[in-house]
TrEMBL record:
CDD domains: L-fuc_L-ara-isomerases
Pfam families: Fucose_iso_C
This protein's name: Fucose isomerase
Example of a GO MF term: L-fucose isomerase activity
Any one of the GO BP annotations: fucose metabolic process
Membrane-crossing residue ranges in chain numbering: none
Domain L-fucose isomerase C-terminal intervals: 341-468
InterPro entries: Fuc_isomerase_C (IPR015888), Fucose_isomerase_N/cen_sf (IPR009015)
């Protein structure tokens, strides 16, 4: 499911010896902008305080009370400074409201020919004072690209869109529920993680033994109407003409039970033991079901990679598009800034315009190809690329991550499974960082350029350690 919509709390700062009409003008500016973008704003009414601004401690209490009443709706707060503003009023509002959500500080620029007492703003200076007070109060906040900027400026609209992405990530990660289906493959120490570290960060994991999933699936009769409905759903999702009918039934059984597990436990994402037990004991791959869930904004990662699917979920929140778990798999010839991304595969359909349901040759070499029907085949074409990885560091007791951007290309690639060619600036430097810092071989990709959103959300509001590879804004 897509992230649920949220509202922005909006606070208009004011200071008594600056022109009050600037507050009314700012309110009109932002009301128009919110209507254009489709933002639901929660702010004081002009009847609640002088022009609906926050100037005194009493104003701060009124605004904080309004924000608290709408706590479940508000995903972030926008502080608007039409003039210098009252830094104590802004800080008091946020302290009293106690929302613990991202905050964006905007200040209006002055006009050189209007620096008289009638139109003077001084928000350039006031914004510094507001930030100083928030820093003293240990309230994290985000900044606009330009120190002062009008809401009509294209850079501010980009800043606001980025901020909304940050709000989605922070709101979504806090309280996310992940299902871990089965044990990790025995040979994959790389996907170990600390459930306790995740829990301390508001991320819960619900576990289930794979035998319970396979046992429930085996009990569903071939004539069950849910089987027929799920097979129709699979055929509508991807080209399944090559799949033997008996294997379609097995795939459908798995899909039904996984859907039930997700719904019953109110899960946002799953990480599944995708080999070797499911092939040996159920006779098919679970890839198609995982792909369908990911396409439906319920991301699913293979090999019980819990922090991998957490990364998928975060990227999905940032971009409002599905993510995929992939391997940093192969060099691309002698080209140092390109590599092959691969899995066998369960990528969301959004990545695979030529999607087909086939079997998995690599797993089939030991498990029998007849037991691996349900794997997807398809090539991801050229698209923007955001990549990254979240991991739990048990030694230091923290969550760490890396993020970056690049491109997927249309370079020639002759292989099978789910595949893509990635071009990443200074790829060799990135690989050194991944290896030296002990990150997993799994990485998450998303068809967007949203690394900046992820870094801001992870570092400023979630308190995680982040390496932003070749950050263009650094």
């Amino acid at each position: 499911m897509k992230p649920q919509p949220f509202s922005l709390g909006v606070l208009f700062g004011n200071r008594d010896f600056f022109p009050d009409k600037l507050v009314s003008e700012a309110r009109a500016d932002f009301t128009k902008l919110f209507a254009e973008i489709g933002i639901d704003a929660i702010m004081l009414d002009p009847a609640d305080s002088k022009l609906g601004g926050v100037e005194t401690h009493n104003d701060a209490r009124k605004c904080a009370d309004l924000f608290r009443k709408n706590r479940d709706k508000i995903g972030g707060v926008l502080v608007v400074l039409p003039n210098f503003g009252d830094e104590k009023g802004v800080a008091d509002t946020l302290k009293l409201a106690g929302l613990n959500v991202p905050v964006l500080i905007q200040g209006y620029p002055d006009d050189l020919d209007r620096l008289d007492v009638i139109r003077r703003r001084d928000a350039f200076c006031g914004k510094i004072s507001v930030c100083n007070n928030l820093r003293q109060a240990n309230i994290p906040y985000s900044l606009t690209t330009k120190h002062v900027v009008r809401p009509t400026d294209p850079t501010f609209r980009a800043d606001l869109n980025k901020f909304l992405g940050v709000c989605r990530v922070v709101r979504g990660i806090r309280g996310v529920r992940i299902g871990a289906v089965g044990a990790r493959p025995g040979a994959f120490n790389t996907v170990r993680y600390s459930e306790k570290i995740l829990e301390r960060n508001g991320i819960s994991v619900t576990t289930v033994d794979l035998s319970e999933i396979l046992g429930s699936a085996a009990k569903i009769g071939e004539t069950d109407t849910r089987i027929l409905s799920k097979i129709d759903e699979i055929k509508a999702y991807a080209n399944a003409t090559a799949v033997p009918p008996a294997k379609l039934i097995q795939m459908a059984r798995l899909g039904i039970v996984l859907d039930d597990f997700v719904a019953t436990n109110h899960l946002d994402a799953t990480a599944i033991q995708c080999w070797t037990s499911v092939q040996a004991n159920h006779g098919c791959n679970v890839c198609t079901s995982m792909s369908m869930m990911s396409e439906n904004f319920l991301p699913s990662a293979c090999e019980v990679d819990v922090t991998g699917v957490l990364t998928m979920y975060a990227m999905q929140l940032a971009s409002l598009s599905p993510s995929a778990l992939v391997d940093w798999n192969n060099n691309y010839g002698d080209t140092d800034d390109k590599c092959v991304l691969f899995h066998c595969g369960n990528w969301a359909k959004s990545f695979l315009p030529d999607i087909k349901i086939l079997n998995a040759p690599i797993l089939g070499s030991t498990l029998g190809v007849e037991n691996t029907w349900g794997a997807l085949d398809g090539r991801t074409p050229a698209t923007p690329l955001t990549y990254g990885r979240i991991t739990t560091d048990d030694t230091s007791g923290v969550i760490r991550a890396y993020v970056g951007q690049g491109q997927l290309t249309n370079d020639d690639l002759k292989t099978f499974g789910n595949r893509a060619v990635a071009q990443v600036p200074k790829l060799q430097k990135l690989m050194h960082h991944i290896c030296r810092e002990g990150f997993e071989h799994h990485v998450v990709m998303n068809s967007s350029h949203t690394a900046g959103i992820l870094e801001e959300a992870f570092t400023r509001y979630l308190g995680w350690e982040v390496y932003h590879h070749e950050n263009p804004e650094a």
